[in-house]
TrEMBL record:
Record-level Gene Ontology MF annotations: 6-phosphofructokinase activity
Highest taxon listed in the record's lineage: Bacteria
Span of domain Carbohydrate kinase PfkB: 2-78
Pfam family, one: PfkB
UniProt protein name: 6-phosphofructokinase
Residue ranges of coiled coil: none
Amino acid sequence: MVALTLGEQGALLVTADRTLRAPGLQMQVSSAIGAGDSFLAGMVWAMNRNASLEQAFRYGLTAASATLLSIGTALCDPVDVERLYREVAHE
């Protein structure tokens, strides 16, 4: 499994069987510090809870996006992650 964050262009997840792509969410960026780490953490968190691959990918993207809303080195707020989770669309 290979997961790539693509900045404002979203993210890409490739496995032996499939490819998932999600566009970036349009938002005002306060800080990008920790966004990539939050992407990975969101995916691992969801997979640890037996989420589907699609759900885990969405949680990764929304955790990264929610981190962009935080100031400085602060990471994502779980409330923002859940709100943004509903907005992510897959291609």
